[in-house]
User: Which sequence fits this backbone?
């Protein structure tokens, strides 16, 4: 309950010892109630390895995803009272990239900075940068497009829908590669004024596959979506 602050713990112990009457055997007995009163904070039951802990972490991320800033702060407070900074940090970073993602990329950067600040100052001050990150993530536009895209690509790999790398993309940095047709007819995008040229990159069996499906929830991804759309139009 001292949040890792030895001074706070010793001060509370001193207050408890000085304010508690001795029993018949001249011993000072400090029970939970006295300890609570001495540290001026209520006890909080939270088992870091129990189901309840993971329920709170789940509710924490889902509240951020659902843009409920008050609920997210509530669950953050419960995790802070449990003193579980590593779990808070991990869940905030995952949420920043999974649920906000490309809709507001700078939110992920600021979240990392907030976590680093929290780790440097420790509790109780760590609550301040953490709260800043939670409020921003809650109220940021949301997009899981990148997360969904990589999972779709991984699903193809794991179900053996792979195909062969096109010859013109294969490594040609060794003797005899050209004779095998490797790297032949590769078009170097930087040789073109726009920095882009139409050519096939996916294997034949996946040539028309679309993994990335942009969302329109944030201005950054709207811009990416427009670029992506223009590229796909010019490829046809």
Assistant:
């Amino acid at each position: 309950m001292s949040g890792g602050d030895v001074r706070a713990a010793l001060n509370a112990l001193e207050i408890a010892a000085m304010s508690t009457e001795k029993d018949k055997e001249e011993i000072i007995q400090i029970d939970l109630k006295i300890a609570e009163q001495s540290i001026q904070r209520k006890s909080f039951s939270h088992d870091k390895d129990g189901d309840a802990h993971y329920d709170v972490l789940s509710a924490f991320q889902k509240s951020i995803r659902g843009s409920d800033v008050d609920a997210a702060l509530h669950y953050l407070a419960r995790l802070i009272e449990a003193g579980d900074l590593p779990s808070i940090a991990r869940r905030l970073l995952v949420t920043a990239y999974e649920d906000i993602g490309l809709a507001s990329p700078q939110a992920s950067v600021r979240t990392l900075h907030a976590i680093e600040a929290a780790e440097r100052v420790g509790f109780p001050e760590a609550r301040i940068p953490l709260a800043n990150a939670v409020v921003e993530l809650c109220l940021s536009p949301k997009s899981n497009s990148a997360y969904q895209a990589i999972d779709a690509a991984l699903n193809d790999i794991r179900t053996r829908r792979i195909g062969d790398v096109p010859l013109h993309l294969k490594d040609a940095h060794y003797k005899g590669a050209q004779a095998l047709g490797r790297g032949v007819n590769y078009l170097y995008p930087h040789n073109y004024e726009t920095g882009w040229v139409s050519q096939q990159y996916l294997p034949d069996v996946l040539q028309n596959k679309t993994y990335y499906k942009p969302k329109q929830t944030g201005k950054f991804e709207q811009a990416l979506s427009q670029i992506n759309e223009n590229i796909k139009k010019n490829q046809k």
Q: What stands out?
A: The chain has nine helices and no strands. The longest helix spans residues 105-121.
